Amino acid sequence: MKKITLLLVLFIGFTTMAQQRALYKLTGKVLDAKTKLPLPYAAVTLLSSGQDIKTVSSDADGTYVLKSTAGKYQLKIEFMSYKTFVKDNFQLDKDIVMEAVLLEENRNQLDEVKIVSEKSSVELKIDKKVFNVGKDILSNGGSANDILNNVPSVNVDIAGVVSLRGNNAVTVLINGKPSMLTANNGLSQISAANIEKIEVITNPSAAYEAQGGAGIINIILKKNSMKGFNGSLQAGIGNPANHNLNANVSYKTEKINLFGNLGYRNFNVFASDKDYQKNINNGVTTYLNQYNDISRNNNVYNMYMGGDYYINAKNTLTGSYYRDKTNNDYTTKYNYNYANASNVTDSIIKRFENYKEPQYYNALELNYVKTFDKKEKKWTTSLQYDFWHDDENQYIDQQKTLPYEASVSNLYTRDKESSNDIFLKSDFVNPISENSKIEMGIRSDLRALRSDYYTLLDEVLQDQYTNKLKYDENLYSAYFQFGSKIKKFNYLIGLRSELSDIQIADTKGTFNKSKNYINLFPTLHFVYNLTPKTDLQLSYSKRINRPKFWQLNPFSGLSDLRNLTVGNPDLNPMFTNSFELTILAKPGKFSINPSIYYKHTTDFFEYIVERTAANYFVRTPVNLDTENRYGAEVSTTYNPVNWLRLSLDFNYYKFKQNGTYEGVVYNAEDETWLSNFRSVVKFPKIISGDFSFKYRGKKQGIQTLTEPQYSANIGVSKDFFADKMSVTLNVNNLFNSQITREKTTTDDYYLDSEFKSQGRYINLNVIYRFNRKKNEADRLPEGM
């Protein structure tokens, strides 16, 4: 508690501002030169000898009022993506009312300031952090997982599990909507070249779904909308094999905007897994040393295309289609060395597994956006239909080589899975006064998933290893929220209601579970404008984490019979109350954005490990009582010179977990930290460089200790032909250090595991842009 008190004192200390004198008043208005509409939050600055004397931001109607002492200044008015207005030798010696300043859009940023304004930067907004991918050197040629690992506060482990601030109870969306591509490491199938930006929302408002106790990560795919015909072509090679081809094109007129992305990626992953087990049964100790070699080849084809039709100035219709075809071919060699009480090997079993899985994912989307004469009044409706299926084929050959050679089994398994998902939502925003507005909406998520799993042993059906699963999930929700501004104070108050209707069953009748519940989720957001460039935000939200369908299915596959993971059909959702206090500072030469947060979760679920009588280990998710998690996060950026940007993100948190399952007490308490350092160097017309270093501290969970882990990436990029072509070389996992080490200890067994994923890998990529420049922004249609 003393640590949190100290952090809070330091946190509030950032808000202390020096008193400023005011003698004369400068009043004016900032407008868009083309539309003559006001530009809110434009920065109006008085400078003297290059030093910032006073800065204010324009109001919602573009009006600003600035007070300062008498003198001769430089007057500067800035707004993102607009040309800066500068007036030298500006004399302030009386109250002045200026004529309206008209700012023009700026599509061509100067090279020397791209280090700040170019994409691949973090943009802070009141309700979210936005990571603009742009020309990201480190993730070039990679997947969505590579981009997420470069996003502050976000981590993707070697198994593809996404976490936010060390918490994996996070919801991942694509274009603001749920997608099956976010499950089972499906994000590795999305090419980095097709991603526009990443939104990170740690305390969402009522307008967002309540799923995700840690928050929401929203992946926005590219939809270029520049006038005329333009786009880019990209090709890359890597070692180990990581080859990609991508085409990104668009065509826009006054009435239509057509866009399309085509991509192909072939990549290999080589991994290894080492496990050491010590078992004590009736006072007798036995041992197992297990070594697994894993080789994976993936071929991914994806396509995303669509268009906007501008019916008139107030009505826009958008349609799109996304298709992803993936062929997975995995080979795993298992080696089991059993030892007796004297730790002498007395049995060896070798197991060979070949896994082939073709996957097909499709998403059809239709959006309608209607605006009105009243500013910011808008109605949007979205309909999405996802349908996918895969066919998992597994060939297993197991042999004993000690004390004698024998074929133990020759297995074949097949799992055919399919899902049909319908998503429908409608939202309405209506300003009821100059500083107040209401928002409301309804939504439904309907999912029907089917799985047919069967096993053949020497071509004979094995009924005990056969499972036909039926899973239906229907969610219905509605929300209302009210927001207003009173001078420097903004607030947003919302309430969301969600009805959950979930059923999971198998055709054998082994289990048939229904989950039906309705819940209310209040949200509160308060923002106080400390200075024109600094806001203090306090927020609260109630969240839910529903179990995924594989966490409910009690059936396990046959890959590694000594280490099984099964679901729990009795698993209930967990609920989180989330509080956060944040300072949001607009970027400058140096910026620091601290946050403190607290999360209280009930019925949280955790995987526990139990040993069977045959010394097999089974991981199962169970509901425990409570988890309390609190921490502090600081994001800093420093631009000492115009060619260098340094950033450091640091997150410290402490947690305490309590619960009982089947008479056994499971308690854990620990503290840990995460950090991410990044430096970007840019010498205009010469070369650009990027380096990142990520560290995760050790963590003691309910049963398992996870050892510290670190990784580093580095890359360089060079532009050619007036910035039309860029060549990028990057090295990921520079120190070959991405290794997960875990130790599980109980009274009668001990597990020590080490999983090493892809080692060091190198990528070389070339991108060519036509009818556009490197720094011209990809923009989303209105309403996205």
Give a nutshell description of this structure:
The chain is mostly beta strands. The protein has two domains: 2-108, Carboxypeptidase-like, regulatory domain (Immunoglobulin-like, Sandwich), CATH 2.60.40; 228-514 and 521-763, Beta Barrel (Maltoporin, Chain A).
Helix content: under 10%
Number of contiguous helices: 4
The CATH superfamily of the largest domain is TonB-dependent receptor, beta-barrel domain
Radius of gyration: 28 Å
CATH 2nd-level architecture of the largest domain: Beta Barrel
Structural class: mainly beta
Task: Please indicate the percent range of residues in DSSP E strands (runs of 2 or more).
Answer: over 45%
**How many beta strands in the DSSP annotation?**
47
Count of folded domains: 2
The first-level CATH class of the largest domain is given as: Mainly Beta
Q: Note poorly predicted spans.
A: 3-21, 107-120, 773-784
Q: If you consult CATH, what is the topology of the largest domain?
A: Maltoporin, Chain A
What is the makeup of the main sheet? 22 strands, antiparallel, barrel
Overall body shape: globular
User: Residue-averaged pLDDT, rounded?
Assistant: 86
**Distance N terminus to C terminus?**
42 Å
Outline the fold blueprint.
Layout: H1 2-13, E1 24-32, E2 43-48, E3 51-57, E4 63-68, E5 71-78, E6 85-92, E7 96-97, E8 101-103, H2 114-117, E9 122-124, E10 129-132, H3 144-148, E11 154-156, E12 162-164, E13 170-174, E14 195-201, E15 215-221, E16 228-239, E17 242-252, E18 256-281, E19 284-312, E20 315-339, E21 345-371, E22 378-402, E23 406-431, E24 436-457, E25 460-461, E26 467-486, E27 489-506, E28 512-531, E29 534-545, H4 549-552, E30 563-565, E31 574-585, E32 590-602, E33 605-611, E34 617-623, E35 626-641, E36 644-658, E37 660-661, E38 664-665, E39 668-683, E40 687-696, E41 699-700, E42 704-706, E43 709-720, E44 725-732, E45 739-745, E46 749-756, E47 761-770
Parallel strand pairs: 1-7, 1-8, 13-15, 30-34
Antiparallel strand pairs: 1-4, 2-3, 2-5, 5-6, 9-10, 10-14, 11-12, 14-15, 16-17, 16-47, 17-18, 18-19, 18-46, 19-20, 20-21, 21-22, 22-23, 23-24, 24-25, 24-26, 26-27, 27-28, 28-29, 29-31, 31-32, 32-35, 33-34, 35-36, 36-39, 37-38, 39-40, 40-43, 41-42, 42-45, 43-44, 44-47, 45-46
